[in-house]
Amino acid sequence: MEKLTIIGGVPLIGELAVQGAKNSSLPLLAAAMLVKGKTVLHNCPDLTDVDAACKILSYLGCRIRREGSTVEIDASRVDRYDVPDDLMREMRSSIVFLGAIAARMNAAQISFPGGCELGPRPIDLHLMGLRQLGLRIKEGYGLLDCELRSKRFVGSRISFSFPSVGATENVIIAAATALGRTVITNAAQEPEIVALAEFLNQCGAKIYGAGESTIVIEGVPVLSETEFRVIPDRIVAVTYLCAAAATGGEVLLTDVLTDQLDSVFPVLDQMGCKLRITDRSVYLKAPLRLKAVKPIRTMPYPGFPTDAQAPVMTVTALASGTSMFVENVFENRYKHVSELVRMGANIKVEGKVAVVEGVNSLYGASVESTDLRGGAALVIAGLAASGTTTISNLYHIDRGYERIEQNLAGLGGRIHREA
Ligand code: EPZ
Predict the structure, then answer these.
(1) SS3 of 389, please?
(2) Distance between CA atoms of 214 and 212, rounded to whole angstroms?
(3) Which residues contact 351 (CB under 8 A, 6 or more apart)?
């Protein structure tokens, strides 16, 4: 089993361009099914989740061509509407294909996406929204057997009890070519929603208000070919900033849409980091001693992102003073804590709350990655710790971080992957 071996204690110094966003490329790949022709996505990150999404598209009949970070999806012919269990299980977020398959094929058959490390990951909001648009969904035996009541989705008013990112994406994709108008209230406002709407509008869709809590979609019969550049990954950007902060380093990140990180920069500033921010770059210089931060509550965008909780927690574990996190988005997103404690962190979890007492140093240990962002938190801890850390279960990390060991070694980190 592959492991990362990290010899900690070296400040990260240098410059890095941030990869394309995993959580934007996945819905874009699904939405490409709506175009009876070619879609070209640039700046697609080289990740196992993107590989899994391409496998699903190929299985359904699309022709995929990848050249570096450019992915061409030819969806001229789609001849299947079922996604086999093994493909569904490869990527938990494959539920985002449901609306796209049903819109294209008038039917869809997918297995119930399993839970994941963050908790059961219910899909009730996805199903509610798609049912409102006219999708008949039979649930049973771990399968979702779906068919459209009429030839196309039919526009409707949909109000989400929680601004679910995936459910908002599914409804936008299904409504783009529906008959009539769809209004989504309490929609997710993440940048990835805005990017999806921009992509679909470039294809001829009529989507208004993406990024706000009410989105209006006037369905159109046909969408046309386009090329689109995937936005940079804001969470990967935060991760590398945290690595520099935790190791006492200084980095310049380029290709970052810094206005998407307005809720994170003040936290890094409170910790004593020096930041220089432009539209598309951020320079961070770590302080000699990190300071604890005021309570961090994770919230839907534009609040503090839940995906940044684990990487930032590692930095606070090394700060002088007590910091506190309240994880409001997922019910089980502290699995990395026990592994950080093995490395000498002083963190106590009580339900949604984690209290972090900063320590002077972390110590290298052999730890297991528990989920995508928890794994990234352990990498940061290993880079900051004194001694050697080995991290296993790298498949979690490889889902979301492109060339993580090469990028960190390029900044001076002593890290390599062993088979
Ligand atoms: C997306 O997941 C991201 N994944 C997650 O990133 C991210 O943490 C999350 O949004 C929140 O920002 C992708 O985009 C592929 P949600 P998603 O639906 O769509 C509950 C990462 O590390 N919920 O907004 O699954 C759910 O249980 C990953 O890159 C329902 O109850 O997030 C959770 O508690 C992790 N019913 C909360 O809403 C539903 O039908 C947020 O989920 C759907 C969700």
Answers:
(1) strand
(2) 6
(3) none
* Number of CB atoms found within 10 A of residue 276's CB: 10
For the segment 371-399, the average pLDDT, to the nearest whole number, is: 97
Give 141's DSSP letter.
T
What's the pLDDT score for residue 112?
A: 82
More confident residue, 274 or 142: 274
Q: What is the pLDDT of residues 167-202, one digit of tens each?
A: 999 999 999 999 999 999 999 999 999 999 999 999
Confidence tier at 30 by pLDDT (50, 70, 90): very high
Contact partners, residue 58, CB within 8 Å, separation at least 6: 64
Among protein residues, the one with the nearest Cα to ligand 1's atom 42 is 164
Task: Report how far residue 180's alpha carbon sits from residue 133's, in angstroms, rounded to the nearest whole number.
Answer: 10
Task: Using alpha carbons only, give the angle 97, 301, 272 rounded to the nearest 5 degrees.
Answer: 130
Smallest CA separation from ligand 1 atom 15, residue: 23
User: Active-site residues: which are they?
Assistant: 116
Q: Which DSSP category does 260 fall into?
A: G
Contact by Cβ (8 Å): 326, 353? yes
* Angle at alpha carbon of residue 120, lines to 141 and 142, rounded to 5°: 10
Statement: the pTM of the whole predicted model exceeds 0.90? yes
Residue 93 CA, closest ligand 1 atom number: 15
Alpha-carbon torsion angle 263, 115, 94, 237, nearest 10 = 30
- What is the rounded distance in angstroms from the CA atom of residue 126 to the CA atom of residue 58? 24
